[in-house]
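hey so i finally got around to running the thing on that chain from the lab meeting. sorry it took forever, my laptop kept dying and i had to restart like 3 times. anyway pasting the input first so we r on the same page abt which one it is
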Amino acid sequence: MANHKATRKDVRQSEKRRDRNRYYGKTTRNAIRNLLATTDKAIAQASFGKVASMIDKLAKRNVIHKNKAGNLKSGIAKKINALA
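ok and heres what got predicted. didnt touch it at all, straight out
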């Protein structure tokens, strides 16, 4: 366990950040899952902007890498465009 005051504070802060990042990541994954489960192209295109924004925010906060964010958005866009 940490012995210095500053190290204890850093442990507390990193736990808060971890919980926050896990929340953002999980809500984004749920939004992606719901978007990909949609069979209506119009609804999927309407909600794509919101999901893409969530993915970009994860990359901005360094929860995921920026290249992974790009790959996710491109894969989702391909699936949406493939809908009939």
